[in-house]
Amino acid sequence: MIKQFNLKVFEEVLGICRLDSNAQVPEWAEGSFLSITRTSDELSIVCSQKHIPQHVKCEGSWRYFRIEGILDFSLIGVLSYLSGLLASQGISIFVISTYDTDYLLIKEQELDKAVAALRAEGHQITIAGG
């Protein structure tokens, strides 16, 4: 049912930040990966960790995988499958989906373990720049 995926791991280290729901998007919210989500409860920003000021509430040291190719909206169970595989190895994830694909954020200290788990299941992993 689930096919083998090609995933790309990026070198950039990300931070996941929480600001007040009425805060303006700050100038430091930048990098080659940027996700901004506003709800009635919070403004969440995921961006390059190197730009985040020390005083900002932030969970840092995240690396990210991109599922290569465009994922059709009709595909069912992709995130469930990949997150379940990683959860079975005790690896926590943070997921961001875009129109075209999904991104799995993994704590930097768990990256090697995640790559090994995904490769063991037949997924192809490419390291950006490598």
UniProtKB/TrEMBL annotation:
InterPro entries: A9CJY8-like_N (IPR049447), ACT-like_dom_sf (IPR045865), CASTOR_ACT_dom (IPR027795), CASTOR_mTORC1 (IPR051719), UCP008459 (IPR016540). Residues 59-119 form the CASTOR ACT domain. The chain crosses the membrane at residues 73-96. The keyword Transmembrane applies. Signal peptide: none annotated. SUPFAM superfamilies: ACT-like. Residues 15-54 form the A9CJY8-like N-terminal domain. PANTHER family: CASTOR ACT DOMAIN-CONTAINING PROTEIN, CHROMOSOME 1, WHOLE GENOME SHOTGUN SEQUENCE. This is Amino acid-binding ACT domain protein. It comes from Desulfitobacterium hafniense (strain DSM 10664 / DCB-2).
